[in-house]
Amino acid sequence: MDIPYIVETRPDTGLANGKLGIWLFLASEVMLFGALFSTYIILRVGAPEWPHGELNVWLGAGNTVILISSSVTMVMAWASLKMKDWGKHRLYLMLTVGLALFFLVNKYFEYAEHVRMHELPSHSTFFAIYFTLTGLHGLHILGGVVVMLYFLGPGAKMWKANPDQFTNRIEYTGLYWHFVDLVWIFLFPVLYLL
Amino acid sequence: MDNVTTHGSVAHGHAHEHAAHHELGFWRKYVFSVDHKVIGIQYAVTGLLFLLFGFTLMMIMRWQMAYPGRPIPLIGMWLGQDRAPMGVMLPEFYNQLGAMHGTIMVFLGVVPLAVGGFGNFVMPLQIGAPDMAFPKLNMMSYWVYFIGGVTMLASFFPTGGAAQSGWTSYPPLAVIAPGQTMWLVGMIFLITSSLLGSVNFIVTIVQLRAKGLTWMRLPFFVWAQLVTAFLLLLAFPPLEAAGVLQLMDRVAGTSFFMPSGLVVSGKPLMISGNGNPLLWQHLFWFLAHPEVYVLILPAFGIISEIIANNTRKPLWGYKTLVYAVVFLGFMSFIVWAHHMFMTGMGTTMSAFFQTTTMIISIPSVIVLTALLLSLWGASIRFNPPMLFALAFLPMFAIGGLTGLPLGLAPSDIHLHDTYYVIGHFHYVVAPGTIFALFGGVYYWFPKATGKKMNELLGYVHFWGSFICINLVFMPMFIQGLGGMNRRMYDGGAQYAHNAGLLKWNLVIGFAAWSLGLFQIPFIINFFSSIKWGKAVDKNPWEATTLEWSAPSPPGHGNFLTEPVVYRGPYEYSVPGAARDFSPQFEA
Amino acid sequence: MSDSSDIKSHLGKYWMIGAALLVFTGITVAANQLHLVVPLAITVALVIAITKGSMVAAVFMHLSHEKKWIYGSLILTVVFFIVLMTIPFLTINDTIGTPIHVSAPEHTGH
User: Fold this and answer.
1) Which DSSP letter does residue B257 get?
2) 20 to 30 A from B35, CA-CA: which of B447, B524, C3, C102?
3) Which residue from B299, B347, B314 is spatially nearest to B567, judged by alpha carbons?
4) Are residues C7 and C59 in the same domain?
């Protein structure tokens, strides 16, 4: 017996295994970042004063634009597969990886500037939570890049053997990627603007 | 032979099995296997070994409690100068043993055995699935757990030793004390493993149920595993976050949990401050209270299977059990701060948590009552698994009922951090959950190996353990009610109120070491039965659930033909039926 | 979920949502330049973030039409997320007597 519902959906739930799996994983991620946001609220309300304007709003806004664009290219990479347009899929997926790397480079310069100014995590509660939240988010970006590179490289072989399954995998990668984007949509105002 | 299979499909099944077996070498078949049964056994054996190790730590602690300051016999001289010079235990080492006993028993012993072991092995069989939904992820869960376990064990060896701040790791102490960094790294691995596992469990139960296996036909064990998986999925991430924050506090010098103005050993601590130690307690107990139910729900599941099978009648109130366990899971997320009544909590929130705590005791009592009523009027088969299941009921009842005074702030203020608390939660987890796990080992051993465990050794194991474990934990209620504090490396000899209570430590000590001796029959039984046990057919207990329709042990892919479910899980002694059991898999 | 012709009709929507997200990013940065009072600034920024987040979830992540098991799991998650955001905060701020950080500055100054 083979494991059923890898590609086709189970009639009574209407789902393939991976779809439910990735959503459950994202549910746990919501709780992970939820705990960190909860930490942020408690520390901020408990602090005698909270710094403003420590971060470069333009770098943060730039990274927001980059991540939102990468979300659009990601959904296009999946939609192209649905339309059996392999070339466009490759192009959009590469663009997504490119934007993700661009984001990380930006983040690197931002971090380097803080380190140069001796604004390390041990400097204050604000920088502690800033480095922890953005660092963890950055690791998620890096994880996404690794997965996408796999689907650009060795993982791409599956398109020939089992196009439907490959399309599903890109869809799940996309769900993860949009979630990482979504987290940043909240991180940006919380850390840079407020 | 089999009532469902036709000859053609049997031949097909065998052919498939052989093809699969020839492809795999030793490493892929037994070590880096993706088969849920092999992974389940890996989890179970690793979990049992960790239980033994965690228990050994406790036996060493009990020597110190019974005979404070006397050299530890047998192993004392090998523990080293920084742990036990001349064999006499140092307070720091006592603290390490305490912290690691708790951590190992909960995160490396009971949960991996109950969820990783039984869940992995039994659940896919009971729902008629060929494997877990994501076999590679399943293998990864095990190996991430394994790395976490090795990290925890290795943490004893560097200078300063293992974590010493209790399994709860409260800051500021945990941020300052040595050994904590490896504990945190180990925990992050263990949590990641649990998260991967819980995703896999939920998807498997939702997606891979056999044809005809509707929700209200699921064995109760599967329900328990489903609720458990949701608890792990949603409660563990906050502790992972908290673990990262505490790691930052230790490694990067942040002050998430460190308040301003701390003075350590007479010197002010040079940190940025403004952190909140209570924040850790919230994030920790946000997991650790649901974790209590992670420990107990699979045990409910196991003993329900055993009780239905050995009473030869349906479980009393199956649907009530299901609704109770779902409600229990939900409520377990909003009771956590009853561990924190002593933190200066105001009356409003204290009232909230007392109320939710009292509410959550209702479904627990419903479960216990339903299982107790299931015994009514039955002609019970008293075999080893059933003895453990029967013992579970009063033991869990004692553990549960002694919890009520702890859930109410006025009585908790007196009992907090005393041996009463230790007695309470050990009654739930040790003669409760661990007895259920032993029962499960005896019950499903024939399915995993094709051999039955020896009954005589089983009786010796049960009665010895049952008597000793009560002698270990019952005196703790006396000590705790008298005000004896936990976590004192000499039992708190300097306090006058402990004077009449310390003598119980001798009773507890001897009971604990005897309890250790009574595990030897089990260990012998476990290994010798694999080779010399009585060979059995696919359904030795004449049970009704799907796992008993697969061969013992089941081959790759589990079932010879696709299983179809025709009825509810516990149709025993159906009036008019030819036999006293009507399996789910027979039309 | 849908075949290729169905997807084609969605493409425009994806680009539109992407553009809307960028516009909202601009608005939230612009609002920040106004230097509103803190409670108002937090409200504005969070309302915009929630709007953007909902758009990503509903359209890019197809949550506007999903199956009941996914909705069910997410509703459960949201409930516990809200618990996690509110109850620790409420509990920490509900103390017996006066919280230390309120009374401390009076005695010690800075």
Assistant:
1) S
2) B524
3) B314
4) yes
Rounded to an integer, what is the distance from CA B543 to the centroid of its chain?
Answer: 25
Q: Give chain B's end-to-end CA distance (angstroms, integer).
A: 15
- Cα distances (angstroms) measured from residue B203 to each of A5, B25, B186, B568: 11, 29, 26, 22
The torsion angle over the Cα atoms of residues B576, B582, B584 and B587, rounded to 10 degrees, is -50
Interface of B with A in 216-245 (CB under 8 A): 233-238, 240-242, 244-245
**What sign for the dihedral angle of Cα B242, B244, B247, B253?**
negative
The residues on A that touch B, with CB distances below 8 Å, are 1-5, 10, 13, 15, 17, 20-21, 24-25, 27-36, 38-39, 42-43, 46-48, 120-125, 128-129, 131-132, 136
Structure tokens at B115: 């969820």
Residues paired with B268 in a beta bridge: B263
pLDDT per position as a tens digit, B372-419: 999 999 999 999 999 999 999 999 999 999 999 999 999 999 999 999
Instruction: Average the pLDDT over A67-87 and give the result.
Output: 96
CATH class of A17-193: mainly alpha
Q: What are the residues whose beta carbons fall under 8 Å from the beta carbon of B574, sequence distance 6 or more?
A: B582
Domain finish residue from C48, C64, C80: C64
Predicted complex ipTM exceeds 0.90? yes
Checking DSSP bridges between strand B451-452 and strand B263-264, what pairing results, if any?
unpaired
Query: B407-453, pLDDT tens digit by residue?
Result: 999 999 999 999 999 999 999 999 999 999 999 999 999 999 999 99
Please give the biggest Cα pair distance in chain A: 63
Half-sphere exposure of residue B180: CA atoms within 13 angstroms, side-chain side: 24
d(Cα C88, Cα B133) in Å, to the nearest integer? Answer: 36
Distance from CA of A176 to the nearest CA of B (A): 15
Tell me, yes or no, whether C23 and C40 share the same domain: yes
Pairwise CA distance, residues B104 & B125, whole Å: 28
Which letter does DSSP use for residue B89 in this model? Answer: P
Residues C13 and C46 in one domain: yes
What is the amino acid identity at position B565? V
> Strand pairing partners for B485?
B418
What would the pLDDT profile of C14-61 be if each residue is shown by its tens digit?
999 999 999 999 999 999 888 888 889 999 999 999 999 999 999 999
State the average pLDDT over residues B97-108: 97
Bridge-partner residues for B264, per DSSP?
B267
Do C29 and C50 lie in one domain? The reply is yes
Domain residue extents for chain B = 34-257+275-549
Q: Reduce the secondary structure of B153-197 to three states and give it as a string.
A: HHCCCCCCCCCCCCCCCCCCHHHHCCCHHHHHHHHHHHHHHHHHH
pLDDT category of residue B1 using cuts at 50, 70 and 90: very low
Give CA–CA dist B449/A47, Å, rounded. 60
State the pTM of this model.
0.94
Q: Give, as one character, the DSSP assignment of residue C43.
A: H
Q: How far apart are CA B74 and CA B253, in angstroms?
A: 42
Rounded CA separation A3/B35 (Å) = 12
Task: Please indicate, yes or no, whether residues C57 and C80 belong to a single structural domain of this protein.
Answer: no
**Model confidence at B328: pLDDT above 50:** yes
Please report, to the nearest 10 degrees, the dihedral formed by the alpha carbons of residues C55, C60, C61, C63 taken in order.
50
The CATH number, out of the four listed (3.30.70.260, 3.30.300.20, 1.20.210.10, 3.40.50.1220), of the domain defined by the range B34-257+275-549: 1.20.210.10
CA closest to C72 among chain B residues: B230
State how many domains chain C has. 2
B292: tokens are 């209590």
Cα dihedral sign for B199, B205, B209, B214? negative
Domain hosting C8: range is 1-64
Cβ atoms of residues B116 and B141 within 8 Å: yes
Q: Where exactly are the structural domains of chain A? A: 17-193
How many residues are given for chain B?
Answer: 587
